[in-house]
Amino acid sequence: MARAEPMNVLYERVALIGLGLIAGSMGLRMKRDGLVGEIVGTARSPETRSIAIELGLCDRVTDTAAEAVKDADLVVLCVPVGAMETVTREIAPHLKPGATVSDVGSVKGAVIDAVAPHLPAGVAFIPAHPLAGTEHSGPRSGFPELFDNRWCLLTPTGDAPEAADRLARLWRAMGSNVDTMEPDHHDRVLAVTSHAPHLIAYTMVGVADDLRRVTDSEVIKYSAAGFRDFTRIAASDPVMWRDVFLNNKEATLEILGRFTEELFALQRAIRKGDGDHLHAYFTRTRAIRRGIIEAGQDTDKPNFGRGDAS
Amino acid sequence: MARAEPMNVLYERVALIGLGLIAGSMGLRMKRDGLVGEIVGTARSPETRSIAIELGLCDRVTDTAAEAVKDADLVVLCVPVGAMETVTREIAPHLKPGATVSDVGSVKGAVIDAVAPHLPAGVAFIPAHPLAGTEHSGPRSGFPELFDNRWCLLTPTGDAPEAADRLARLWRAMGSNVDTMEPDHHDRVLAVTSHAPHLIAYTMVGVADDLRRVTDSEVIKYSAAGFRDFTRIAASDPVMWRDVFLNNKEATLEILGRFTEELFALQRAIRKGDGDHLHAYFTRTRAIRRGIIEAGQDTDKPNFGRGDAS
User: Fold this and answer.
1) A171–chain B Cβ distance below 8 A for any pair
2) pLDDT > 70: percent of chain B
3) Nearest CA in chain B to A245
4) What is the pLDDT of residues B23-41, one digit of tens each?
5) Topology of the domain comprising A11-181
């Protein structure tokens, strides 16, 4: 992507509240491509703040979120969903009139409930969720290409169209495709594509860990047969995911209910030896993979091109 | 790996019965490194046989398995588990005295029951299971490095130690690490590391496909948030997996029972808002990922180094 000229700077000052994988990747990309003026960052831990300066995730750090948002044109809340309300209460009195507040939470309905009521008039809230990440977390895990070809979903209320347009331009400039949708719909879609799969992966890995008869070392040694893909998902940040499940409860539990229903049907087919049912089911699921590859959302290389565990 | 000298040839003639991903990868590797003399292959479909010749998976093909095993020192059954008995009955009268018969099935107990009783005296049966594969299948999906750094599990009965040693040498020469274990233990371990995870992935992908409210296109578009990893597993060969579940019924159903038990406990924690339970669980599972990477069974690169869907 071509470097943006100063005249193309989208925000004079951006405040990143929380400096983990997402904020770090945003900071590196905004700086690499000159998308904004100054980037101010803050995190609760002094160690995280000094790592952020060391890695150049932002231009300067402040000890508190209240200081960080001073004169910021864009404030991005990059903290776990469960911390959104506390942070919002802290920064609200210090927000610049006309500023835009956004977030990167994996849940939108609960975040809107936690943030919107505490913002002063004249500040636009444009919730956002970049569908990008890795199993790694923390300030050292960010990289500027994280958002390339990924989707960023905005759930604007519609009362600040210009602020929403500018934020969408920023996400596109960081490499994302941008869609907008209703918060409730977002939470239902993500329950299927992300939240339920994560809980299922966590569960399977926990079960394997519980089985003393099959020693951990065997589970690990022979994990390449499928299990290792689950462990990658189940290595994601525990705090982030705890908050996701607690804040997208209904949609996630509904999908999990559908899942167990379906799983019981397949278990019965196995028990009864109904090979036709199994074969038809497995043939149907194969087509979905093809669709994902054609949509450019994954690689067609065998084993994700991890080739192989080298 | 250094080319083997002719004097190091492990088998003068090898017969591959079935020419899919595993047989194709074996053929390419054995030829690349000069591990054996002649490789004869056979498959039910004439198209598969001509592709095998076109790609050089074997030196020649025969129309029937009976012809393929003639004068073969090693016969490897590379057909779905459900086809093992039929193929064994067909080849048994034509096996060379002193020959070794092996297989590459994902289940060992059921394969031993299907094959061993039909083999003539003087033929050694050494069951094998290479823990290697991709979501692709068929003769065009093989590649000679498939087995590098993967495990191959042998479950020999112990009455033909020399035949087992030679087969272990072949698998090591093809890049694998080799372990031996009891068939029942193998089937229990694989139920955890492979069979249950596959059924769970198939189930989740099927559920997503069923949800009309969340359109397929949305599931596919936004799959990068975790779901896409499930779809890779759920793209595996339907016939192979149908047979795996039907032939490792008890162990798989037992693990699935443990899984649903655990899943219900986590669902209850979500419903009750028990964040401590979730956080403790997710923290524990994270450690297992680390073990797998340290054991060299997966890459530590973010997102398997797929970087990212490019």
Assistant:
1) no
2) 94
3) B270
4) 999 999 999 999 999 999 9
5) Rossmann fold (3.40.50)
Which phi and psi angles does A178 have, rounded to 5°? -120, 135
The token pair that represents A122 in the structure block: 């004249």
Q: Whole-angstrom Cα distance, residue B170 to residue B102?
A: 12
Q: Is the pLDDT at B299 greater than 90, yes or no? A: no
Tens digit of each residue's pLDDT (9 = 90 or more) over B113-159 = 999 999 999 999 999 999 998 888 999 999 999 999 999 999 998 89
In sequence order, what DSSP letters do the residues of A60-115 get, joined into one string? EEESSHHHHTTT-SEEEE-S-GGGHHHHHHHHGGGPPTT-EEEE--S-SHHHHHHH
Scanning A72-111 for CB atoms below 8 A from B yields 82, 106
Residues of A in contact with B260 (CB under 8 A): 260, 263-264
Predicted pLDDT at B97: 97
Residues of chain B found within 8 Å of residue A216, distances taken between Cβ atoms: 288, 291
ipTM of the complex: 0.88
Report the gap between the CA of B227 and the closest CA in chain A (Å). 5
In B264-293, the residues whose Cβ lies within 8 Å of chain A are 264, 266-267, 270-271, 273, 275, 278-279, 281-286, 288-292
Q: What is the pLDDT of residues A258-286, one digit of tens each?
A: 999 999 999 999 999 999 999 999 998 88
Residue B256 and residue A263: Cβ atoms within 8 Å?
Answer: yes
B1-17 in b/e form (b: 16+ CB < 10 A) is: eeeeeeeeebbebbbbb
- What is the CATH architecture assignment of A185-294? Orthogonal Bundle (1.10)
| Chain A contact present for B199, CB below 8 A | yes
Residues of chain A falling short of pLDDT 50? 1-6, 308-310
Closest Cβ opposite residue B304 in set A150, A189, A306: A306
User: 3-class DSSP state for residue A38?
Assistant: strand
**Residue A177 and residue A197: Cα distance in Å, rounded?**
23
pLDDT band, very low/low/confident/very high, at B310 (cuts 50, 70, 90): very low
Total-model pTM: 0.88
Contact B138, B17 (CB under 8 A): no
Domain ranges of chain A: 11-181, 185-294
Q: Does the distance separating the beta carbons of A131 and B224 come in below 8 Å?
A: yes
For residue B305, the model assigns a pLDDT of 67
Put simply, whether A209 touches B (Cβ < 8 Å) is yes
Measured CA distances, A217 to A210, A309, B15, B248 (Å): 12, 17, 35, 22
Q: How many contacts does A have with B, using Cβ atoms within 8 A?
A: 380
Q: What residues of chain A lie within 8 A of the CB of B292, using their CB?
A: 220, 223, 228, 231
DSSP one-letter code for A193: I
Q: What is the mean pLDDT of residues B177-186?
A: 96
